[in-house]
Specification:
This protein is of the alpha+beta class. The protein has helices at 5-9, 17-26, 33-46, 56-64, 108-117, and strands spanning 71-74, 77-80, 87-94, 103-105, 123-130, 134-138, 145-148, 159-160. Strand 6 (134-138) and strand 7 (145-148) form a beta hairpin.
């Protein structure tokens, strides 16, 4: 019997959400696509550094389990990619080592804030992404966050912002 995301997260701390989500999906306890999508949104947006909790491949797999190849997850709703422009310029605040990560924003000032959190190694990166690279978009926490399949970046797609 499938459970709900609320039951899975229970009294866990927000940084435990990604692993709890992955375990619940892997164990077949969380099977309803709407509940998995709610878990993705909460686990991605609430955890500090979600990619330190789960690998990029695992995130892509979980997100892909609730969308088709012509969709992305908007908040917790599968949405046609055709609703996005073909290309979108996004920014990311990160160190050089993590420049081509999954988490991006369409608000440069947010990327600047994240880069500032990283001290002198923080850089604002820019990329123009194809809509088929978009896995999810979340606006909770007022971050306007875009989750990108970073494995689709070519070597020169991500550059320091001008």
């Amino acid at each position: 019997m499938s459970t709900t995301w609320a039951d899975v997260m229970g009294r866990l701390g927000r940084n435990d959400y990604p692993v709890a989500l992955a375990n619940a999906v892997a164990e077949g306890r969380l099977t309803d696509p709407a509940e998995v999508a709610a878990g993705i949104e909460a686990a991605w947006t609430m955890a500090e550094w979600p990619l330190q909790r789960l690998s990029a491949d695992l995130w892509v797999g979980i997100i892909d389990s609730v969308i088709t190849e012509d969709q992305y997850l908007h908040e917790h709703t599968p949405t046609p990619l055709s609703e996005l422009p073909e290309f979108t310029t996004l920014w990311r605040g990160a160190t050089e080592e993590h420049q081509a990560g999954m988490s991006w924003t369409d608000r440069r000032e947010h990327a600047e804030w994240f880069a500032g959190r990283l001290g002198p190694d923080g850089v604002v990166w820019e990329a123009t992404v194809l809509n088929t690279m978009v896995l999810a978009r979340f606006s909770s926490r007022s971050e306007s966050e875009w989750v990108i399949d970073a494995s689709m970046f070519a070597d020169d797609d991500v550059q320091p912002a001008a």
